[in-house]
Amino acid sequence: MELIDTHCHLTFDELAGDVAGIVERSTAAGVTGWITVGTDPKENQKAIDLTNRFENMYAAVGIHPHDAKDVTADTINQLKELAQNEKVVAIGETGLDYYYDNSPREDQKRAFAQQLKIAAELNLPVIIHCRKAFDETMDTLDQHGQGVKKVVFHCFSGSADQAKIVLTKGYHISFTGVVTFKNADKTREAAKAVPPERLMLETDCPYMSPEPMRKQKINEPALMIHTAKFLAELKAMNLPDFAQKVTATTTTFFNLPSKSI
Ligand SMILES: [Zn+2]
Ligand SMILES: [Zn+2]
After folding, report:
1. How remote is the CA of residue 75 from the centroid of ligand 2, in Å?
2. N or C: less crowded end of the chain, CB within 10 Å?
3. pLDDT band at 259, cuts 50/70/90?
4. Separation of 168 CA from ligand 1 center, angstroms?
């Protein structure tokens, strides 16, 4: 089995000290590819540097909505340059977070629009972070996403109806271990609405370990196997079939070199 963790933060302090061990445990668990996601200029550079040390590890570069207030013209120019590195497979994470509102909403929208433009210019997929801002995120995509061919909503927290809207637009949806949480009925309903052809998996580690490992405070890619098992069961599929389909979806979406398919 070859699953791909499409959204991890291996450069964050909780994980960065032991990436070799993390990769080893992950591979043993059947999670054999990783996209480590940048959130600010420093993390973006670290993400690219890290991918040069490991096969099957790729990077996404972007400015998180939390950091949108610090985005200048220079930030955007530098991001565009970094995004042309051969190990970069996506722009992100970018989007809108009206739950924390760590940056003014106008700044979030502006930085999001600027990153959509880079993705269109470089023909890269976009990884969307959307929290309590569903309508505004869809509006921004409609207004500024011309030329963007591939979009994934990461750590999807919307309803089944919202999932259907996302799918109607041709976008993809990615789920974290949250879908395994006891109180996550809404997310499970959403997951039921997403076919494997449009679904991807992620840890978003170091955060949100899935059940039954939730007490492990620092999540890591090896634990994504529990999310995969859970979703396969939810969809009444056997795990190898589900894994094969979702990995094919992921490989195509991020245009990764296909190994064994
Ligand atoms: Zn996020
Ligand atoms: Zn993230």
Report:
1. 19
2. C
3. low
4. 22
